[in-house]
Amino acid sequence: MTDCNRLQLILKERLKKNIGIKGEFYLPCLPSMLDDYLKLLSDFLNLLGQNLDAAQSENLRTLIANALAEGFKNSPHANLIVSYFPANAQTGLAGGITMNTKIQIESMAQKYHSWPDIRPEPLFGSHPDAKVIAIAAELGEPGKAPILDVGAGPGRNSLPLARLGHSVDAIELTPIFAEKVSAAATAENLPINVTQGDVLDPLLRMKTYRYKLAIATEVLSHFRYPEQVRLFLGKMSDAVLSGGFILFSTFLAVDGYEPDEMAKQMSELCWSYLITKQELQAAIEGLPLEIISDESVIEYEQKHLPDSAWPPTPWFVSWASGRDLFPVQETPPLELRWILVKRL
Question: Pick from 67, 46, 56, 212: which is nearest to 142 by CA?
Answer without folding.
Answer: 212
